[in-house]
């Protein structure tokens, strides 16, 4: 299958491990991966903060970058992020319509129909749950809000993780509770966000896991930032990084100075 | 700062006691009057808001205060997690729950589409069965109507069934101003009233109290509580029962709200758990019901849907213990005089709003409060309205016309649409499928649009971000600038302090340094011998499409 990759703006600059692992994983599974270079951002931050006019050019750029999927250039678009996929699927059309851009809205919705979050692509479209990964670590999984309640990915990520060789997957207590990120909520209501984060970190610590994983770099940046601050000794990895990890090419253990969101004094 | 009974902080901008008749100072409707109500001792008069839909600080400020109340945090975490689990269990056992939600949503959509005709039908039906219907445009008018009705009966006390509509209009305070004592008979509402407190939850108004606090309130304020009262729930309930029974038997007038008003039969409905409602609705000679106009349903059979949705969503019960339905007046049975006050109080403005009107679908089950991670941490008082939580965050600012800048950006209610992470838990449990996250986004957009004339840091940042994020070349340049973050981060690779507004992040979280190599650069620099099939180059972008200088073209 020919698959176009959305790196996401956050993934591109702050969390390149996620899109990188996504590309390597899909290639290992025998697919062709493309990176449309004109992509930048899906517009979610602007939309959720209320800046819908400012979101229009961002959405337009995204839609134009990925519209070749409608001409058969690629078979699908993959996004290693539940919330960005959610924004593409549930917000971009609304943003365009609200600006009176009905044609762009229709194109956006057509592109969205061919756009999949990573676990959706793997399980629903490619029909695999065992991707041949190897990751011998104790891991807990945080099902991010938009994956869970906007996309309804259900247990797809967990099924993928269970199939990973060597993994010790432990259930996260109160897993479905929001971590408190919420985009600009973390700044506008920083104290409330921190209270939610504290509870999430308590639950993560209770699992005894070495690695916290999720399908969204943004939530991982948030929880990982908190874990790092308290030197929790728990690192964060994107779901794609674990699925991309093999005996030959294991997910790297972070070293000082490396740009990771891992917590814990090293 | 002022503190309510038992030390619960009250927001700073609240004013004179709501029970004072001369409390009319409401500049801009923000409730900033300062009356002689300041607490002089622990059990003395406590300042109350004089605008039940708009009191206190902005949400972030009020939340900051509330988060420090460890007792509140513990009480709420316990109560909401208990009720969440109960709801989930009884909802899971209904095989057609999603179909019921769709039906509830469809009925409400239909109601909103023809509200005027349904209300007129309701009026005709109620009048035909011997009731009297009154129309109230706003809180003051509703309060005047009810006060006049009570005075006409020549009594100075009434019993009340728990009602959000009467909380919303501050009816108890209006009655007190005319020398009429209103006794709340719902146990939790009684606790709130005795403590001179404000409700913090739509269904469980005293959810912020634990049983030790309730015992203290009863001993100090009830007057006839047994002196050896313990904090065992049964003992507390029995004390309230004995206290209230005397009122039920003596009251000539009762005041209630309504869960539903049926247009085709004129039937009113109250669902409750304690039986206090049944007492109020059947024993007194006169019954006055205040109902928000959105509570009308077209037909009696529509109750089939809502009486399944409501109890499971609210108290987590298959059916609530008491469901009272009455239609006009029945000679020799129950109240011989029935008045229905239909309350607008901003609802027609909400109805006129194509997106926001779904907030009127709410059946006040409070499931959205119980699952909201924000509500669970900060409690109801931080929302500065008798309607807290996710539904409050979309309903309150619409009822008070606070979103869209009509009342100015300093209106504390304008901060309510931002009091959410948009996690979607509220939408998932809403029995009538109100898409609260989408309405929150819409209200944020209106706030932003109304504020465009005023330079703000957020506005400037979002404009700049839009410019950068709408073009790959500009974004790539910004990525290079972001690389400077690596200097800030230093050899440890993490950033622990940043200037405002980013300090909101770094006060409690580190930020990793931006990646050494962006994904874009990694992709460009990948050796062509990379394992995997050919085709890393997207043929969709011709070589050097004008981006060559930055080396971004593939």
* Shape category of chain B: globular
**Overall pLDDT level of chain B:** 86
Low-confidence stretches of chain A: 257-266
Mean pLDDT across every amino acid position of chain A: 94
Sheet with most strands of chain B:
6 strands, parallel
Class based on secondary structure composition and strand pairing of chain B? alpha/beta
Q: Helix amount of chain B, in percent?
A: 40-55%
Total domain modules of chain A: 2
Q: Which band does the percent of strand residues of chain B land in?
A: 5-15%
Number of domains of chain B: 3
Would you give an account of this structure?
The complex is a heterodimer of chains A (266) and B (554). By secondary structure, chain A is an alpha/beta fold. Helix content of chain A is 48%, strand content 11%. Chain A contains 14 helices and 8 strands. Chain A is globular. Mean pLDDT of chain A is 94; it is low at 257-266. Chain B is built from 23 helices and 12 strands. Chain B has helices at 59-67, 70-92, 97-113, 115-128, 139-152, 164-168, 171-177, 187-194, 211-221, 233-250, 276-282, 303-314, 347-351, 367-371, 373-378, 389-399, 425-429, 436-450, 457-469, 472-482, 485-489, 503-506, 519-525; strands at residues 132-136, 157-160, 181-184, 253-256, 260-262, 267-272, 286-292, 296-297, 322-327, 337-343, 494-495, 511-512. Chains A and B meet through α1, α2, β2, α3 and α4 of A and α1, α15, α17, α18 and α19 of B.
Topology:
The complex is a heterodimer of chains A (266) and B (554).
Chain A: E1 2-5, H1 9-13, H2 17-28, E2 32-34, H3 44-49, H4 52-66, E3 76-79, H5 82-90, H6 92-98, H7 102-113, E4 115-117, H8 118-125, E5 138-141, H9 145-150, H10 156-162, E6 168-170, H11 185-188, H12 190-206, E7 211-214, H13 217-229, E8 235-238, H14 239-244
Parallel strand pairs in A: 1-2, 1-3, 3-4, 5-6, 5-7, 7-8
Chain B: H1 59-67, H2 70-92, H3 97-113, H4 115-128, E1 132-136, H5 139-152, E2 157-160, H6 164-168, H7 171-177, E3 181-184, H8 187-194, H9 211-221, H10 233-250, E4 253-256, E5 260-262, E6 267-272, H11 276-282, E7 286-292, E8 296-297, H12 303-314, E9 322-327, E10 337-343, H13 347-351, H14 367-371, H15 373-378, H16 389-399, H17 425-429, H18 436-450, H19 457-469, H20 472-482, H21 485-489, E11 494-495, H22 503-506, E12 511-512, H23 519-525
Parallel strand pairs in B: 1-10, 2-3, 2-4, 4-7, 5-8, 7-10
Antiparallel strand pairs in B: 5-6, 6-9, 11-12
Helix pairs in contact in B: 3-12, 9-10, 16-18
